[in-house]
Amino acid sequence: MAIRQVVKIGEEVLRKKSRPVDVLNRRILTLLDDMAETMYAEDGVGLAAPQVGVLRRAITVDVGDENGLFQLVNPQIVSMEGEQESLEGCLSVPGRHGVVPRPKRVTVQALNRAGRPVQIEAEGLLAVALCHEIDHLDGILYIDKQIREVEEEELLRGKEAEPT
């Protein structure tokens, strides 16, 4: 495993649509492992392949709950309900945070690293992180959806954003 360089806003790769993964081979498994290691090293809760310069539909998410690490290939949101506003940050958009409307609950289907289909029912922060990372696969950044940017002093008053 290796820590990869996180691509920052302004890099063209962040605005492109990722290609599906056709074969789960050693290269994709290494990518998933490197993404997890990079996410943890950067104190993020999620990371999408385009954020490390790879246009493939793969994400990692770990919001620090009992679910642990998700390594998902070809994830897609198949249902969503409710609404919530989340305070978000992004490893590819350093130093900025914003309030973003997201669904309260989502159902995501994907392949796990063993190539088996999985279905994840998520709400709260996990739903936000999954939506945020899946958006990356379509070239969408949270700043494209944010209602407003949150200033540093507001964060210091106790509102923490999770960088994904």
User: What is the helix/strand order?
Assistant: HEEEEEEEHEHE
Q: In which range does the helix fraction lie? A: 10-25%
The fraction of residues in strands falls at 25-35%
Report Rg. 15 Å
Strand order of the largest sheet: 1-2-3-6-7
Q: What can be said about the biggest beta sheet?
A: 5 strands, antiparallel
User: What structural class should be given to the helix and strand makeup?
Assistant: alpha+beta
Unreliably modeled segments: none
Number of strands: 9
First and last CA, distance: 20 Å
Count of discrete alpha- or pi-helical segments spanning 4 or more residues: 3
Q: Mean pLDDT, as a whole number?
A: 94
Instruction: Characterize the overall form.
Output: globular
Structure, described:
- By secondary structure, this protein is of the alpha+beta class.
- 21% of the residues lie in helices and 33% in strands.
- It has three helices and nine strands.
- The strands form two sheets. Strands 1-2-3-6-7 form a five-stranded antiparallel β-sheet. It has a four-stranded mixed β-sheet with strand order 8-5-4-9.
- The model has no long low-confidence stretch (mean pLDDT 94).
